[in-house]
Amino acid sequence: MTPIQKQLLLSGGSRLVVSDSFNRADNALTLGNADTGQAWNPDIGTWGINSNLATQITSSEAVCSINSGISNLYLKVTFAIRAAAAVHRIRFRAASDAVNGDRITLLANDAGYSLYKTSAGASTSIASWAVPPQNGDIVEIYAKGSNIRIIINGVERFNVNESTSQFNTYVALSGNSIALRWNNLEVYAI
Questions:
Q1: pLDDT at 4
Q2: Which residues have a Cβ under 8 Å from the Cβ of 121 and sit 6 or more positions away?
């Protein structure tokens, strides 16, 4: 259990709002609905299920979002399968237009992890950690008010204050390769 999970458990102030194990039949046309019932929205490209993992079916840039209904959140997701020269992303505090709207994005590529903010169409780097991601990396995001903390495999790597889009409620998977896979997404209200 990470320090963030312990803090949430002890405070008693969290509740699960989105959960998706992606454990359902293979489907090359849609991610369908999360285990908690919300529909996944394919904003760019085609998304589906492959071997109980979320995958993008389209080979170029793709984005698929879900409305969590909350902006103060604890999010956990597994970057299940990586690919050389590919970019895994998890977007949070995203606008309903997850493609062009304001958002915060955690990006993982061969150079490591980077945290970006996007506002009025312009993306700016907030922080980076130059350790390349591995298959199965577990990413945790704690965002409350302007504070954003990123934990990778149980170790806090980023702790920043950023007020961009702090009231947006969408979460999105994003990538640029059909080889990428995501697993076990959970979002808690905090």
A1: 62
A2: 100
> Helix-strand-coil percent breakdown of the chain, rounded to 5?
5, 55, 40
For the chain, list residues with pLDDT below 50.
Answer: 10
- pTM of the entire structure? 0.93
DSSP assignment of 81-123: E--TT--EEEEEEE-SSTTTS-EEEEEEETTEEEEEEEETTEE
- Contact 128/63 with Cβ under 8 angstroms? no
What CATH number is associated with residue 134? Answer: 2.60.120.560
What is residue 11's predicted lDDT score, i.e. its pLDDT?
64
- The domain in which residue 57 lies consists of 3-189
The runs of H, that is alpha helices, within the chain are 3-11
**Structural domains of the chain, count:** 1
At 132 the pLDDT is 92
